[in-house]
Amino acid sequence: MKKIIYFFILLFFIFTPECHCEDVKVINYKLQENMEIKGVYNEFNMNFYVNDHWIVSDNSYVYMNINISEMIKYPSSSLTIYLNNSPIGTINLFGTKNIQTAVPIPSKKVKKGFNTLSFKVFKVINKEDCLDFINPANWVEFLEDSYIHLEYLDENKNITLRDFPYPFLKKGQDIPVDALILTSRSLDDINAVLYLSSIFGKYEPYSNLDINIKFIDEFNNEDKNIIVISDYNKLNDRFKAYITEYEKKELNNKALIKLIPSPNGKYILLITSISSKKIIEAVKVLGYEEYLEGLKGTSTLFEGYKMDYNTTLSDTLTLMDLGYDDFVLNNQNEAVFSIGIPKEYELKDDAYLELKYRYSNMLDFKSSYLTVFINGRPYLDKPLSTEKSLGDSLKISLKEFKNNSYIEVKVKYNLYPREKNCIDYYNNRLFAVLLNSSIFYIPKEYKTRRDLIYYPAPFVEGYSLNNLNLVLPKNITSRELKYLCNIFSYLGHSIKVIDNLTVSSQLDENRNNFMYINSDENIKLSSLNKEVYEMLMGLKQNESAFSLFDNRGSFLAVLKTVKSENIKNIGIYLSNFDFTPRLKGQICIVDENGRLRYYEVKDSFSEAKKSLDRESLAKIFFILSLIDLILLIFIEIKQNK
User: How far is residue 191 from each of residues 314, 448, 498, 517, 620, measured CA to CA in Å?
Assistant: First the structure.
């Protein structure tokens, strides 16, 4: 059956006119895991993202592989697919155990930004039986190979500066960064490049980013989008040729930001000045949409810009403040919402969540209730009452979640009709509304974080880099800089303000220091005791390490490799969502195969304690068991003598 479906999809593509296949790009959004739909009427959503510069093709579709309970006997059982609350197709579920089909996604109903496909299922075993909504045999299951297939063209014409970060960062793509960054070897220019990396992370907060960077003297005319960040005097003639005489005269106290189309359809973004400080400031403002919206055309001479940004996370936030509408619920769906707490903060004991809601007065109030789940686990139930149907509330203490950096809440209403009237149920006349005036009260206190389990704290504080000084060796390569840029793109996921970073060749006692060491140079780190210092400096050839320690109120972080190419092994643990949760302790050491071990260091700095993983414990247990066995054999032999 699946082969037949794929065959018809292929024919659909072949006979569709005006298909410029060489320009078409494809992205598939997979379901990831099987989704079971229970009850009479229920639904689930799949979301997909459309970049502002995509032209979506009518060849897009959603493919579904659905298993259906053989107990479903009602002929009108059906699945209806909605795109952004507008129906795009209906499928009959009666009389089959499996359906594999594709429904076209009309491009006219696709909007820029996030789109929602809703799969709404109505299914009945016996239309006279009001218990179908709790009958476990009343199910359909969407299999994990279901997916949304999106075809689009990149709109690559008439791009201006206000479109930044496009086309250099393409939100929504599997590989968002589509640019080669070129810079000089000066520390100020590298500072600007690291700011740009954090800006990319700010604009694409949920994706792992891979920054491609080279020094200008390594560039070989590659066919890519290019961002050039360099002091004017360090530019080569190719890039100087894009600068007019008028622009050149202004570079003493201004920075040029210029977008240049290439004949190959690519773009060059040139950021330069004679003042290195102006270059840094010019890059920083690219992280603010408010600034970009005021730009016109493809070039500007930047003189200065003051950005006022409130980074305070209020103690009281409604669901409306968090971007949620009222949740209109019935007996089959549920409300899910969440809030993030920066890792450098801890909730105070009096933090709470207050749910505000109302519900139908046609309920059997002896049986109807709501259930609250927090972070995936059932937390409490509360009965509903006729006296409070027009306005009810529930206050939940968040004290036991004070150390969590993320709180997800799910609210499900269990609604039972007063009369055994299935029509009321099927017509969704039983309802509950969770109001977006519901409140999170989240008073916080700052905590000094000196454990990598809290990463990206303390490198980020208050939605900005935390007064950070990056210390670099003199012989840093573009390959090493690439992985440092990836780390800063990860830090950028947590920031709103582009500021508080310096790059230098030595420690700064007035700042938090992040030092990169790529050899066994005898660098004195006075904040570390002898044991820790020797541990970092005594790494094996195939190892790299990352450490975090207190330094008289500020902190010192050291990223150490023996061979510079090993930075990639530790770098992925500091820049990839799949790996950062594995960080722990004050020292993490990674070998060439990516295996990580961590150490916890006592506050006295007098002892480093190795934390054993399961594999190590298993080996110890095996050795002890072997010793016991040998002793038993020895005793048995001795007794037999």
Answer: 31, 26, 12, 17, 47
pLDDT bracket for residue 625 (50, 70, 90): low
What is the domain range of residue 210? 161-302
Helix (H, G, I), strand (E, B) or coil at 65: strand
Dist CA 394 CA 357 (whole Å): 9
The two three-digit tokens of residue 50, written as one number: 């459309």
The predicted structure's pLDDT at residue 470: 97
Do 506 and 563 lie in a common domain? yes
User: Exposed, middle or buried by CB within 10 Å (0-12, 13-18, 19+), for 481?
Assistant: buried
- Average confidence (pLDDT) over 601-623: 45
Residue 299: pLDDT over 80: yes
Among 360, 374, 365, 443, smallest CA distance to 410 is for 374
- 199 with 234, same domain: the answer is yes
Query: From residue 179, how far is each of 166, 212, 377 by CA, in Å?
Result: 10, 7, 43
Positive or negative torsion for Cα 86, 92, 96, 102: negative
CA–CA separation, 165 vs 154, rounded Å? 14
Query: Which of 21, 25, 18 lies closest to 50 in space, CA to CA?
Result: 25
Q: Is residue 600 part of a domain?
A: yes
Q: Taking residues 80-106, what's their average pLDDT?
A: 93
Query: In CATH, what number is assigned to the domain containing residue 469?
Result: 3.30.379.10
Length of the chain: 641
List of E strands, 384-447: 392-397, 406-414, 432-434, 439-441, 444-446
Tell me how many domains the chain contains: 4
Quick: pLDDT tens for 334-344: 899 999 888 88
Q: Which two tokens stand for residue 313?
A: 């996370």
**Residue tagged 């930075």 (tokens):** 567
User: In the predicted model, is pLDDT for residue 9 greater than 60?
Assistant: no
> pLDDT tens digits, residue range 26-40?
999 999 899 998 877
pLDDT at 618 over 70: no
Paired residues of 377 in beta bridges: 374
Average pLDDT over residues 372-376: 94
Which structure tokens are listed for 628? 């016991």
Same domain, 140 and 283: no
Give yes or no: residues 398 and 465 share one domain. no
| Domain presence at residue 424 | yes
Same domain, yes or no: 219 and 249: yes
**Per DSSP, which regions of 324-366 are E strands?**
327-329, 334-340, 345-347, 352-359
Looking at the structure, tell me whether residues 287 and 336 fall in a common domain: no
Q: What percent of the chain has pLDDT over 90?
A: 62
pTM of the model: 0.82
The pLDDT value recorded for residue 529 is: 64
